[in-house]
């Protein structure tokens, strides 16, 4: 799991907790079911079974892979629409091509993040490039859907390409954890992602036996998702493992500890830390549209069918299925 790595001894340290701060406790731990997305790539549905109130402002998250593809096996998605939210695609290992109907696009690979604000409506495609389809190889990533408040749902579409070397790198107080801040802030340190809905998104690698205790905005919800490995989470040190999501209660800090021994092919505990300012508005979702009312979903379908989301470019990429 390469993502972006660094020597933690050279990085700014996250301060240890003070006596006045409170640790967040665990409200629930759920295990995400496995399924398939797009043209058939494997995913873990990270938020399955969790109430929308606990997730707000997040809507959906898939862990894509981790999978070792044989030649000819990699799959993605064909062109499809979105409206009313932001998609965040973080590629930990491997590569994905992206293109949209408003001129955004590029190659996402090894620690990079593609942040697309669908806003008023966009068509886009995410698919492995031809060379990955031909050769096969490791593929691992995450796609997160971040809701937009009613006032922002019809913003013009926007695309951000956040290269892996632009994320803010931090170290835990004991030097045993590397934290990559993609968006939002941890303490005084902020990531490069620009968000309409206030959130924090970070990827942490915690070495066996090490502990990560990080400040967390008391106004944000708190979620910890395990990408790989085993450990404990929260003030009660509840056990948690790969594919599980912890929903945390209120407080000032989030604590995650890696077990002293990990599986041979999982040398460290890898987690995503997520939180945001709840929007607390009605949510009406139908497939790739996230709005506030059923009527707005009907209008989204009509606008999509009429071409209001834009057109697939003449030179638009297509899923490559091999020779």
UniProtKB/TrEMBL annotation:
Residue span(s) of domain Pirin N-terminal: 44-146
A single GO molecular function term of this UniProt record: metal ion binding
Domain of life the protein comes from: Bacteria
Keyword Metal-binding in record: yes
Entries under InterPro entries matching the protein: Pirin (IPR012093), Pirin_C_dom (IPR008778), Pirin_N_dom (IPR003829), RmlC-like_jellyroll (IPR014710), RmlC_Cupin_sf (IPR011051)
Requisite cofactors: Fe cation
Binding site for Fe cation: 80, 82, 124, 126
Keyword Acyltransferase carried by entry: no
Cofactor note (record): Binds 1 Fe cation per subunit.
SUPFAM superfamilies for this protein: RmlC-like cupins (SSF51182)
Keywords (A to Z) from UniProt: Iron, Metal-binding
Family that this chain belongs to: Belongs to the pirin family.
Protein name listed in UniProt: Short-chain dehydrogenase
Organism, as annotated: Hoyosella rhizosphaerae
